[in-house]
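Follow-up to my post from last week.
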Amino acid sequence: MSFLVPAFLAGLGVLLVPVIIHLTQRQRSQVTAFPSLMFLRKAPFKTTNRRRIRHPLLFFLRCAAITLLVLAFARPFFVTDRGEGTGAARDVVLLVDASASLAYEGRWTSALQSARDALAELTEGDRVAIVQFSEEAEERVALTDNLALAASGLEGLELTDRATRIDAGLQIASRILDESERANREVVLISDFQRTGWEDGGRVRLPDGVSLRTISVAESTAPNVAVAEATLQETADGRARLLVRLANMGEAAVEGLPVSLELGGRTVATIPTDVGARGAATLAFENVALPDGRTRARVTVRGDGLAVDDELRFMASADGGLEALILQASRGRAERSLFLERALAIGEAPRIRVVRRNVSQLDAAALATAKLVILNDGDLSDAGRAGRLRDWVSAGGGLFVVLGPNSNPSGWSEAGQTLLGGEAGAISDQSSRGGSRLSWLDYDHPVFEVFSTPRSGDFSESRFFRFRSFTPAAESRTVARFEGGEPALIEHTVGEGRVLVWTSSLDRFWNDLALQPVFLPFVHRVALHATGYREPDRWITTGGVLELGAIAGEDGEVSGEWVLVTPSGDRRPIERAEGPTWIEFDKAGFYEVESLEDGRTVTVAVNPSLDESDLVAVAPERVEEAVLGAGSASGEAASGVDGEEQTRQAEFWWPLILVALLVLGAESIIANRWTRRRPASRLAQSA
Amino acid sequence: MSRARIVSKTVPGTQFLDPTVLARIGNLELIARSVVEGFIAGLHGSPFLGLSLDFAAHREYMAGDDIRKIDWRLYARTDRFYIKEYEAETNANIFFALDASRSMDYGSQGITKLEYAKILAACLAYLSASQRDRVGLGVFGETLTRYVPPSVRHRRLVLAALDRTTPEPSGDLTKPLTQIAESLVRRGIAILISDLYADPKSVLNSVGALRSRGQDVIVFQILDPAEVEFPFDTSRSFEDLETGERLPITPDAMRSDYVSAMEGHVGEISKLMVERQIDHELVLTSTPLDAVLFRYLSQRARRLKGRG
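User reply:
Got it. Predicted complex:
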């Protein structure tokens, strides 16, 4: 006989309650005031009277009724067809969490010991598989009845620096047991049950009949301070400011915590700082002199239970920022680029250096160092200059064209027209109606994306008194329009480069945009988007991958043999494949990607996911509930038949209910008769 | 074994006055008036009524008699002075001795024995005073703590003293009852209201002090139904209200012994008192008060008749 819902069998524990209360508690807990004890002889509790059950038959009937009800609710059934593998032998998957948080003091040892204990519980005929998981799960030992082999495999498990994903492990375990033909199947999940590893939990369901046993190795409290982030900001004097963010994941505040910055293996500064309980703190290392090239850098804090996040590794290098070349018309007001120039100069991530020239001074030397050219109300009627600029853009340069009053786009050369990406027309004068406004912005476009949320910038406040009518070419994309639907900002590509065309001016002459708060971020977004600027990756997270060509190649191309030198010093050949060669970085530390051909080396800093620093655990019961789902329980593994068949066979629960009711009826009758036997006082009867 | 007399619940012509309802009223005088007047109305035509107010006889005027008592109508017919004599002039002292020991502070029926005893004493005092009896009160626990000397004007004092009575430390009955006996200079009826948790012979000796001072004694032994039936089921500790002592008890196993012991105790007291011509009434706190009043009146009538 087996049970569909064996968890209900725990209800049999109710049988002990009256006995325990009877023998231990009741006398002490119940005191009745009485006028006089002169007629009550002393009867200490520890007499045979107290320990003897007064009405054994009633007690038996009550116990029998409870037992029958519990059995009925557990939905017993007889398995008549015991096919192959439905005996007592079990298939067990040991699911061991090897994520970075297991490095917290004692957890990994405890996890391994729990796994050994679980392995020791297995008997001959049982099969076991060992799965190690972090972000990914790996079947380290396939399902085997060779327990010695499994024990050996268990000792070979290694801690990783990667994040936790409990469902990844459960997915593998589910697949293994789904292929098993045995009735008794169990998953033993050993983990610290980090909440961050179960944020998206509940999507995996174990197969019917598979039970789940959870073993938590997490402590109730686990103080931990992590170096969460480091941001380099270059300043105008060629130095840099390093902003470091610390995260205190513990319940106690930390005071005077020394934070050290190490550059190229040398400690350059140490700053003590305070971090509140479950809070964050940001501190700045000022005037950091960045060495030439990419240099290994670390920010470290005093060690705690989890060492792997006490250090943030990154590659420090002078970014160099962007150089923007402003080309303006030789005639007209000289200060027409004032607002544009000032706006670009503000900001440190990245720092933008501005060079201003007349359009007539456009030559190859001027374009050599520029990443961005802003043609501010300039004229490109000269074919040579226009062609030079077009070639530069085609090679990947970014161009921002501002069609002010002096631009005269109708007279531009062919190369200039190519850069325009459309046909510019006459000036539209809106001053008679008080100016036009920007009525539509493409908030999905990178320039306007940052303004998409409420109260993040209002372009509708600007009034545009004049702008040029513009008919975009078919391949151009309009990303902003005026009230009348006329294009305000148009984007198109020329070769590898990107061109943005603004149909009004960027001073106070044709509009007042330069006076609006959105002007500065707008100009910065345009500059970054036009150049395709991307902040260099100073580090990646464990488990991340990089393409060999992207990190070591020239123009994305690599040749020859390469090796990967891990933080522990191991040298692993990088296997080249057709197409991109991806390199995976498992451990925290500095990796080196080295060319065997020319000795060229690229260093990659790898840090663990910050999620691993948050050691707050989710209740294992939540995992069990989510994985097993409603109507399933650990004991289902006891049966080899499927759920539908079990339900059909479980129909004999109702006779148990019937018998229980009969027993309760008999108990009531007997109890009533016996309780009526109580001798009544003659005094009371006569009164 | 001698049996105690039990006050009947079914006195003809009376209405049942639930003690627990009366206990919630709070004003003893109001309770007493309500009970007594209702009771009197129910007993219309009873031979026990109007004893103190009924005309008894005429006698010739003698020097020194109060001229206000001269029957002027008879003088007009006979031209002689006659003095009216009423039964009221034969009224006795009615003294209530109320046991307020802590054991009386027990109640399983919504009213404690002490509350019941106070209401009973108040009703009896009100009834007696309305019949021109002199009423007095002694409240005692370990010693006599309140004393109101008998007087026809002391009804309110008695009721007020009853109202203020609270449970007191317990002790032997002998000392306070002796004090009361010594204070009563005139013969009369002493009514002892107590649960009589003492050795029967000791109780008799104590009550004997009153009896020896020429008092007719009526004893109301007040008990709670739970003291008589002992209805407890589960094992528990019982705490003595008087001493604070606790005893672990298995009620089921002890019930029959307890009930027998209680019956024997009450029976023994009743037997000893009958032998000493002391009326003993066992009253359960579930007993309606008018039934007790009826019993009292019959006792009182018998006493006065016997004395005359």
